[in-house]
Amino acid sequence: MSNMALPAELQARMRRTQRKLGFTTQARRSVRIEENSGIHVSISSDLPHAADHAVSVFEKQYRAWREQDRFAAWGNYKRRYFTIAVGGGNTVKAQFERMVDRLHSRVDWYAHVRFFMLEDSSGEGRWESPERSLVMYFITPLARRMIAARSLRAVARDLDLADVRHEHEIVDALVRSMVVPMNMAEVKRALDARKRALATRLARSEAARYDKSIRDKLGESMAFHYLLSGIGKDGALGALTPYLPELAQTTPGVSVIKRPRGALRVALNRGVLVNAHCISLIVSGNLKLRALGRLEMEESTDFEQTVMETPLRMLRARPDIAARVHIFADEKSLHFDETRFIYSEKGRTLENKAETREGEERNGPHILLMHGFMGLFSFTSFLIRLPSAWTVSALHRGSHAKRLKEHEIFPHYARVLRKAMLKIWNQGRPVPIAGHSIAGVIMDHLLLSVLDDYEAPIKPYAQLRNQDRKLVDALRASGMISLATWAPSDGPHTGENIRNLIEHYRHHSALDYEGFNQVYEKQASKLALREEALVRDQDSLGRLGWFLDTPVAEPLVNSFNVLMRQLLGSKSVQQRMLNVRSPYVLRLVGSRLLKTASFYGLFKEVNAALHNPVQYQQRHLRALEVMVAYDIPTLSIVHADDFLVSARRHIEEHRYLVDLRKKKEKAAREQDLAVTTRLLVLERGSAELPVDPLNPHLMIMATNNEGASMAREVTAAITRFVNENLEKAAKKRRIKSLPSVRKWRAQHPSSGARRAR
């Protein structure tokens, strides 16, 4: 909605608010958000801004060396020169460009900086050597800036050059002084003459020469002050691509690497790369998304195997290495492909979209993620962290639901999910589903969709309609994952926590987000709410529902979008919010969190979720019975201190499900159950409960210090749950055996699996 569509008075108010807060169009041009989870990750609106941020870090490192660090450095060379190892690629060129623009006169390049090469090749298709890239995109523009600022003659005099007539002479002099090159010319000539044995000997000789040169200058650690590189879409770093034997070389040195079609590379090895004082990696485009995801994937009992699969993982070998790594990513590197699901409903053709990261396994699992109130981007970390073999899709809500009545909204979402699941299942692919927060209501309605009505008896599997059997088969094979899912009884839980937080601020009382000691009680072997009256009291949104149905509601509410985009689009505001670790801002780049968000749609969902809460709660419990009746594996994950969702409720529901399953299977113990029914309660790492109440609930995008480890724990639990289910389904011949599952099992023997609570 444009500003022109807003009432004039509201526009005026927005302008006044902007002036008061100091917002300008200029302030909104560049957005930079930083996350720190061991490795420093910076997300910028585009590649030039990512490069600009990288240059800021470079300048900080250079200033620290010049003003302090060099006086304690090993050897005269490292005290005299700031040493940089550079790789090739278009992203590095972007940083070269920004280095020239910003630092051409702020760094004494000729006097203080020396460049080394990460690698060089005897010649490969589409190969551009780091040296050529450095000369073309940094040294040549730098020479031109120097000449423009001071004159050709003055620059020549500084370089002790006589009778200089052309700028290329200045460039040549800078290259001779500033660059410590590799020389693969003789190797290339030998290969051109088809003298492979000679070429190999020459390459080894050049590697030994370059190795000695670096050791003489930098010492046995071969530790550069700064390492600048891009990354490959397969997680390659420098010349180190997946499954290279040279990846096992952890002692610093220079290696000869055989390339396809007989080419040879001389390259700095893993031991050199991880020893750099600062490792700067610049990333652009969604082709790099998989590499970033595998960098963040779950820890393995065989870490070196993950390095073989994704060399970038070497940067996580130790905490001290990770702390020296800076990744500068543009927004495109966190964008995904778009999947469209076309379906018909009541004679209308509708379309729903999903953000999709394609998996490596052709017929591997395709997991569907459903977000809560935070929106699609609450799943950003999951889209990159879940196993690379899987295809991962985060479903859009779509706009159709905004036109529906409260009681129709979540059943509609469930039908959309159902159609997407059946489309994938009919393709012969497993389709696990995971829902966060309010998406739990969608999963409830999905389960209830196999009933003739909400109160109807649960039919035997054999009596189900064909499409219902297919849905149950899909759910049986992979399972359902609840991520801090919401139910109406969580309303009183939140209210209790709000009161506690107020008391904390007023009277400094201890924080306690556990809510009520007991949520349910048994009545005739079924669960019933202990405090049903408290839940019923929540049904007080009649006025909100009435307002949302009025013609002015949607334009008025969505005008709030415009204001919020302008507020949160301000770099100064974002940086201030960053200081308080706001989870909203940390996922916001160029206002992307609100770019397609509709507050009108959000309010409609809130109203629908709290509409007739006791009835909704009863349906939720009915959905649990459907899971048991059709042998659907379940994994529930919740944080013990979730402010919005009761961990106590999840625990009681888990015990209820286990009891039902044991009775059905005639099993004595939970661990003997054939159908997985699992609960994972996340605990906080510190003794003191943080004031920020959102982070525990936002476990898939938490921004506190525990966020990264929390996300990895959740990812590992999901990976284990799905793979175990697929393994069982394959043994029962419900699906074909999958290589990714077999590989996972080889790395995770059954006896070593940690039991979840």
Please estimate the helix content. Answer: 40-55%
Overall number of domains: 3
Main sheet record: 8 strands, mixed
Assembly category: single chain
Number of extended strands:
21
β-sheet strand percentage: 5-15%
Alpha-carbon Rg, integer: 30 Å
Structural class: alpha/beta
Instruction: Please state the average pLDDT score.
Output: 83
Overall geometry comes to: elongated
Give the CATH architecture of the largest domain.
3-Layer(aba) Sandwich
Distance between the termini: 48 Å
Task: Provide the spatial order of strands within the biggest beta sheet.
Answer: 1-2-11-10-7-3-4-6
- What is the CATH level 1 assignment of the largest domain? Alpha Beta
Describe this structure in words.
Helix 6 (130-150) packs across helix 7 (152-158), helix 9 runs antiparallel to helix 10 and helix 16 (406-426) packs across helix 18 (466-478). This protein folds into 3 domains: 1-30 and 540-609, no CATH class; 39-321, Rossmann fold, CATH 3.40.50; 336-487 and 612-752, Rossmann fold. It is an alpha/beta fold and 757 residues long. It is built from 31 helices and 21 strands.
